[in-house]
TrEMBL record:
<dbReference type="Pfam" id="PF08282">
    <property type="entry name" value="Hydrolase_3"/>
</dbReference>
<keyword id="KW-0547">Nucleotide-binding</keyword>
<feature type="transmembrane region" description="Helical">
    <location>
        <begin position="258"/>
        <end position="279"/>
    </location>
</feature>
<keyword id="KW-0067">ATP-binding</keyword>
<dbReference type="InterPro" id="IPR018303">
    <property type="entry name" value="ATPase_P-typ_P_site"/>
</dbReference>
<dbReference type="InterPro" id="IPR006068">
    <property type="entry name" value="ATPase_P-typ_cation-transptr_C"/>
</dbReference>
<feature type="transmembrane region" description="Helical">
    <location>
        <begin position="862"/>
        <end position="881"/>
    </location>
</feature>
<feature type="transmembrane region" description="Helical">
    <location>
        <begin position="893"/>
        <end position="912"/>
    </location>
</feature>
<keyword id="KW-0472">Membrane</keyword>
<dbReference type="Pfam" id="PF00690">
    <property type="entry name" value="Cation_ATPase_N"/>
</dbReference>
<keyword id="KW-1003">Cell membrane</keyword>
<dbReference type="InterPro" id="IPR050510">
    <property type="entry name" value="Cation_transp_ATPase_P-type"/>
</dbReference>
<dbReference type="InterPro" id="IPR004014">
    <property type="entry name" value="ATPase_P-typ_cation-transptr_N"/>
</dbReference>
<dbReference type="InterPro" id="IPR023298">
    <property type="entry name" value="ATPase_P-typ_TM_dom_sf"/>
</dbReference>
<dbReference type="Pfam" id="PF00689">
    <property type="entry name" value="Cation_ATPase_C"/>
</dbReference>
<feature type="domain" description="Cation-transporting P-type ATPase N-terminal">
    <location>
        <begin position="19"/>
        <end position="93"/>
    </location>
</feature>
<dbReference type="Pfam" id="PF13246">
    <property type="entry name" value="Cation_ATPase"/>
</dbReference>
Amino acid sequence: MTAPKRPAIPVTPGWSELASHELEARVVLETLEADGRLGLSGEEASRRLAEHGPNEIEERGGRTLAQIVWEQVSSVLILILVFAGIVAAALGRPYDTVAILAIVVLFVVLGVVQEYRAQRAIAALKKLSAPTVRAVRDGRPVEISARELVPGDLVQLETGSTISADMRVLESVNLRTREAALTGESEPVDKTAAPIAGADIALGDRTNMVYSGTSVVFGRGSAVVTATGMRTELGRIAELIQDVRHEKTLLQRRLDGLAKVLAGIALGIAAVVFVTGLARGDDTALMLLTAVSLAVAIVPEGLPAVLTFTLALGAQRMLGRKALIRRLPAVETLGSVTVICSDKTGTLTQNRMTVTALSTPGADVDLTEVLRERGPDVRLDLDNALAPLLAAGALCNDAIPDPGGELEAAGDPTEAALVVVAARYGLAKSALDAALPRVAEVPFDSARKRMTTVHEVPPDGPATLQGLRALTGGSPYVSLTKGAADTLIDLCVASLQDGRVVPLDSAGREALRREIEALTAGGMRVLAAAGRGLETLPEKDALEDVERDLVYLGLAAMVDPPRPEARDSVETCKAAGIRPVMITGDHPLTARAIAADLGMADADARVLTGRDLDRMSPEVLREAVREVPVFARVSPEHKLRIVEALQANGEVVAMTGDGVNDAPALKKANIGVAMGSGTDVAKEAAEIVLLDDNFATIVAAVEEGRVVYDNVRRFVQFSISGNLGKVLIVAVPPLFGLPLLLAPIMILFSNLLTDGLLGLGMGVERAERNTMRRSPYAPSESMFSRGIGRHIFVVGLVLGVGMILLGWLAWRAAGGDLAGVAGEALVATTVFTALAFAQLLRALSTRSFTAPIWRTGVRGNRLLLAMVGLALLLQLAVVYAPPLQEVFGTRPLGPVEIVAGVAVAVLMLLVMEADKGLRRRESSLGA
Ligand code: ADP
Ligand code: MG
């Protein structure tokens, strides 16, 4: 056998093919010209970034411009228009043909622009939600975007991190990753730093490598990047795993359906008009063209573009309110949410924990007064009876204290609070860490609700640690555990009193339990600390075993004030028919106290704990979730059961989460909501990410979701009622021997103004005053519910009849049957212009479903106002500009015709307002 030759790892493309798993970590670092402590220098990193390019998987399969164009061109609506154009051409009407084709082009362009913009907006949002990485550069930890990673970068990994490049593990503290995306193995894989022999062993067996596309599910560690971008293992199979599905939203699918139904109706009516016209012996060519124009009139051409526009705009507005949308359909689903399940800590509360009470067998202190009177910088004298508790709280702790005095600390707020309170008493975490170095740990886990660290105990040391040393009875190691007090005391068999370990009997434990309950009932989070001596360092797999036969050290109770804006948001939810539910790992009494404070629950509300849930059958749980406002001491798995039970009751559920274990519940919920501060795994499973972790942001996103829904319904109401009117105007008069009141080209032009310009203006409408005071739209709720169907019918009918009457009067004035071609053109122009006026006023009135136009005003929506102005100018141009008169067959109108047109338009406005008045009465009766 030849000795394995030492492979070089040149820092050039292609080098990742070499098996860095076979090498010592040191050698990998050397060949990568990297440093396992200081990381790369910023300069070197930029040089490598230039050489290797950004760490990205090339997007393939996103729809190209050509595909988007084709989708638009091939829609039923456009095909009907094209057919109309062909008919017009066949009949020798070049102007109509050109006009129709111009409109086809306009709508296609409009559709393509909106689709393209929406696609780009979503791509931009995706970039925003791309994971960040904690790398070390120039010896300092920095948060960088995963795109900026280069080979040789030193990266720190922690539970929940997404791994964004292929890396060689340098250090592993119980590091475990999930590699299902890459290898199909669903069990987490243990990672180590030692070299592994065998050049071509399977990816899954290279346990000292971590791969792009996988994630850390447990522990922490560090690693050096060996391959980025398309050169990662993930990059190689990128084509296989890219999710290219172009998701249509529920609304999009339903509106597609609606458009098809309308197209069918359009063709039916057109056929009837054509046949009756023929039977009456009308001019065949004109009847054919009229029939086709009718079909065009009925179909809401603008609907797809307006919908895409509104959705993309909704996503953008949500981002403005700190909710990052990861999937477009979430925008509208948010509008239908009926239950919001929210974490407590950090979402409903500020997550600014402050320890206000300490309790040990030898001393009880309440710091509330001291803190209030002497402020947050207060320093206190150490009482020896408190020292073991404080030291354990600061040692069994991953927060990073501020160098200047340690009265602030970065990291988990619960842990920061413990570091700070120890520092108040003169026990600096940095000094403690130096005196008692940590040698092993079991990380915090929200299912166990505790964590443990193991430390070396030096033979001598500061006097303040005398108490801790008493705990070990001379053994070389001490293990310290801190966690939820109510369960941790069950693991304690003794307690530390006056430097002696005394047994803890059941009466003693009962007394502790009462003390914990008293503290928790006030809304405080209570942690206990405990410890024990260890003769030997436990095996890695047996670490959790040290959490037994513990010696109780004391309790630390901390307050976490509610977020000031949360109370209002809870109020808003309730008014909006949405039930807020608190789900927390905290103690039931703490949870209920905060929930009561926020108005989410009564002071004596029923609280279910994880243990209660474990005893419930799905059926019983289904009943329970109908009213229980607070779930406490739950583990992430319970969240999944709660979501399922709520959904079985027909609820549309938004659920928050931040941890790795929350991912299944986030996926299951209709809207998974990840915390911006949460793990990458949670974010990936979620539909939206809260950039500020704030409950109020969920409520704001729901409001924007409702606005999207409202604006789409607004457009449907406006467009279809108008189209119904137009159908009547065209189809009815011939039955009474009147001439055609609207030339085909006029209908098309009117549709362009209505569906194109005014529709877009409607899409940007802001929330109405009562948007959050009505019940949510069920996802299955008809587009025509809540008075929209009636509106379309009544307003469409009045519009049609009004215009026909106007046309009849104009025809009589022009001489009736003697009107001649010029007279008939004047009649048509009169109706055409009155219709435009009416549509403009109707658009302004549609700004609200219920509030009168004199209350909403017209200035609130600048785009709509601009579109109304533009439409008016275009209409006047078509009527008064001679070249356009030629094309559209219009005649200039005199003051009488204009005044008559305005009068009919105002009449329409009054009908619209009367309908709103009726809605207001109905809703006040219904409420
Ligand atoms: P929440 O839903 O309020 O965020 P967690 O799952 O974070 O709840 O925490 C559940 C319980 O675990 C807390 O009530 C607390 O007692 C305990 N706990 C929280 N953080 C830590 C920590 N860093 N170390 C030990 N115990 C903790
Ligand atoms: Mg938490």
